[in-house]
Specification:
- Helix content is 33%, strand content 18%.
- The strands form two sheets. It has an eight-stranded antiparallel β-sheet.
- α2 runs antiparallel to α3.
Length: 332
């Protein structure tokens, strides 16, 4: 079994894990629980009382990493009670989300320029084996003969957002091999009968990956992503997606393209759905003069969902502006 027996069990585990994570001296855990609670009332209401109760204790006794202390200093000035849940709207073909906590996320490697999408693993850099991340683990277990570590995303941007780290102790860099690609394809296909709406995203280095430790991102959505619409040419429609995109219907077919990206040193994003893998080659991060709101675009943005931390921008960003930014990132 991967995480849970069904979708309801998964949601219960997700919420219960957040509740258990709160402690009087864990700044990093507190920030993670707060950020995840803002996904919506289903998570916000059960956690709000504990978050408010722990807030003063965090201010007086909390210690953490430099990143955590910097983030909490901002929260201490702003308060917790007034932090808003995510808001959603459509902008033509696209989705726009207001998520104020995302502005506090450390950039790490997500905006760094890369000469190559293959970099050796460096245990001195941030990675998912760090001991202070243990409280952020939602589930660990074996699936399909591999050890999986599933963690909460500290600054989530997708519903029920997960970090999925296969065989973490092997310390592999963020660079795909065929066996792992096939395993992700299989995992999504199997989970469609367990957790409806489950999908998996992947960022190569140079395409929004912020950590050079092999990992994927899980999401549970009730509806399709914009990239999945059948009006796009890659799904049999007539409209051209602004990013070059291919929807591959077999593991081997998708791998041929991924392997080609590797050989060409081509940054790319992936999104796995049952029986499909969306491949989106990208111009390298840092090579595009993107608007400030579009910096750090990764797999979710490539698939048509833009996350913003500015309320005015959230209210006014147009379909045309989003389309233009995606075209800037397109690899020709």
């Amino acid at each position: 079994m991967f995480i849970a027996a069904d979708g309801d069990d998964f949601r219960r585990q997700f919420s219960a894990g957040l509740s258990q994570m709160l402690s009087a001296d864990g700044l990093g855990a507190y920030i993670l629980v707060l950020a995840n609670s803002l996904q919506g009332d289903e998570l916000r209401q059960p956690l709000l009382h504990a978050l408010l109760g722990n807030f003063d204790a965090m201010k007086s006794a909390g210690q953490g990493s430099a990143d955590d202390e910097s983030v909490f200093a901002i929260l201490a000035r702003e308060g917790v009670a007034d932090q808003q849940c995510w808001r959603h709207r459509e902008a033509g073909s696209w989705e726009v989300i207001y998520n104020n906590m995302r502005r506090l996320r450390p950039e790490r490697l997500s905006t760094q320029q890369f000469d190559t999408i293959s970099q050796p693993f460096d245990e001195q850099l941030f990675n998912f084996n760090r001991s202070f991340l243990k409280p952020e683990i939602m589930w660990q277990g074996e699936w399909s003969g591999h050890a999986f570590r599933v963690m909460y995303n500290k600054f989530p941007f997708a519903p029920w957002h997960l970090l999925i780290v296969p065989d973490a102790d092997e310390q592999r860099p963020q660079y795909l091999d065929f066996e792992t690609h096939a395993m992700m394809w299989k995992l999504v296909s199997v989970q469609q009968h367990v957790m409806q709406g489950f999908g998996i995203g992947y960022n190569s280095l140079g395409a929004g990956a912020s950590v050079n430790h092999l990992h994927f991102q899980g999401v549970l959505r009730t509806g399709p992503l914009p990239v999945e619409s059948t009006h796009w040419r890659h799904r049999g429609g007539q409209a051209d997606y602004p990013l070059k995109c291919q929807a591959m219907e077999s593991v081997e077919q998708a791998w041929e393209m991924i392997d080609q990206f590797h050989r060409q040193n081509q940054p790319f994003n992936l999104f796995y759905r049952p029986g499909l893998c969306y491949l989106l080659p990208r111009r390298p991060q840092g090579a595009v003069a993107a608007e400030k709101w579009a910096q750090g675009f990764a797999w979710y943005e490539s698939c048509g969902v833009v996350t913003l931390a500015d309320q005015s921008l959230f209210a006014n960003l147009s379909q045309q502006q989003i389309t233009q930014q995606l075209r800037l990132f397109s690899h020709e």
